[in-house]
Write a structure and sequence with these properties.
With about 100 residues, the chain is mainly alpha-helical. About 70% of the residues lie in helices and about 0% in strands. Helix 2 crosses helix 3. About 5% of the residues have low confidence.
Length: about 100
């Protein structure tokens, strides 16, 4: 049984996995966007949970259109909140994951 590794394979692997600096910068930018979007989803779920705690008083009828509008409004408010510094959750995720981007 021959267990030798072909040297051509081991020499080609590092060159295939290396990324240039612009690729790393692009990947970091994508990671930043992804962590902000994750933070926005978290904030949206928090808004949704908070909205459930507000009792309905019957003054305004809750139609399907009203519920849809409120959900869309909550999503946009969550995105706006996460777009700046946010709550810090997106930044913490980014700081933790950026070491894995090569």
């Amino acid at each position: 049984m021959n267990l030798q590794i072909d040297p051509r394979i081991t020499q080609s692997i590092p060159s295939a996995t290396k990324q240039s600096r612009p690729d790393r910068a692009k990947d970091l930018q994508q990671l930043r966007r992804s962590t902000r979007e994750m933070e926005a989803m978290y904030i949206f779920e928090a808004y949704k949970a908070m909205r459930k705690t507000v009792p309905e008083n019957g003054l305004v009828e809750k139609s399907f259109a009203t519920k849809t509008f409120q959900e869309m409004l909550d999503k946009e408010m969550a995105r706006t909140t996460a777009a700046g510094d946010g709550m810090g959750l997106g930044q913490a995720m980014f700081d933790q994951l950026k070491g894995h981007v090569r």
